[in-house]
Please model this.
Amino acid sequence: MSRVAPHRIILGGIALAIVVWCVFALRWDWLPKYLPLIGQGIWRTVWILAVTTALGFLLSIPLGLAQAAGPWYLAAPARVFCSVIRGTPLLLQLWLLYFGLGSLFPQFPWIRESDLWPYLRQAWPYAVVALTLSFAGYEGEVMRGAFRSVPRGQLEAARAMGMPRFTILRRIWLPQAIQRALPTLGGETVLQLKATPLVATITVVDIYAVASRVRQDTFIVYEPLLLLAVVYMIITGVIVLAFRQLERRLPSRVA
Amino acid sequence: MTGALALGSTLDLLAYSPPGWGANLLRGLWNSVLIALGAFGLGLVIGTAGAYGKLYGGPVTRDLLAVYTTVVRAVPELVLILILYFAVTDVVNQLLVAWGQSRIQISGVAAGITVLGVVQGAYATEVLRGAILAVPAGQIEAARAMGMPPFLLARRITLPAMLSFAIPGLANLWLVATKDTALLAVVGFGELTQETRQAAGTTKAFFTFFLAAGVLYLALSLVSGVIFGRIEKWARRGQPNVGGSGR
Model:
């Protein structure tokens, strides 16, 4: 693969020409003025992505475990939770939490007097909760399959050795389930990144909200959207590469 | 307590006749289903063409299709919808002006179907490509050896044989399509989420209305699940049941 196919050189040339045309023919004079804001927006997008993915993954482990091996009174609620999360649009969940719960909370005096109230009046906790629950719902389904796919013999062997149940989970079951879920986890993280711009609709200022503001301020239509697409593609590329590295570091046997 | 009371007293806002907003919600649901159906159909057409292009096309076609699927799957739908919405309207109007016609306002349904269809097409390309690859190569080779022309081969052998492999992925895509219609609310199109927001904003009963819309979406996806289960069973007819996942 060291030799580049000739048609790739031509296609690359066309792509380069389009990029050069975009740089010189389109309006980018607003860029320096908004650069600090863009930096903050990217940081907030990445921050929300990292926090909600981590929390959502932690939440998906009990959800998957309950569905794969739990008693019915744990499995049924977990299954209902996953179906509801996966069956309704994230935008609606976000608005239900922010506008719906947000309009109910002030009716209760004890909530307004609690220490949490300053946070409940801001938008980002609702964004984090909604995105976390969404990720947990989708990933819980993946973890259910991953827990089920660990060979039974290994768990039986561990039990026969007299290993306590929690140690079995920690040493045998969970590591293998995570390893099996890892390729899907990368894809789910990219999907989660693509869900983050929705938080802009509840006034969280991520990179999407910054681009919308640029469009409102300057009446430029395409350029901020192109910048947005490029930013998301770069973050996606970083996520894909990171997960590829992670998968390479874990030993696996391809049958 | 007061919350529960507030919820109870706002339930009659969901009534079907005009003091209630039920009719608006159902009209929104109808619009959502319409757009989802259109986008899913367009996505299937693009996906079939894309899958064939990726498998049997020349090197240039393959590279261009790879760029298409990669870009669409890496950029958020919300951003794509905005870019395509403006771009499609712009291109159509410039073509019309070039032909000496007057500018038109593209209807929300048409724009929504086009935009979501292009997004769906990228995912459908990958689903169908995988499904076509799963068809035993010998069957396709045998048909080719019998001198079957390509279109007849696709219609009689490849497409029916790959259907059972493609249905689970396509069912997922359909659910994504129904949920992605909610994103059109951001562009201001009157589908279910947008109608809900209007109703909620007017009556201030946010919780009730968003909950009601959630129930409608959930019902849609549950019904779709049942229908796709039937279709999958039909597509698998005659295939031996290979243990394991009995869904």
In short: The two ends of chain B are 42 Å apart (CA to CA). Residues 22-56 of chain B form the longest helix (35 residues). DSSP finds ten helices and no strands in chain B. Residues 4 and 102 of chain B are 55 Å apart (CA to CA).
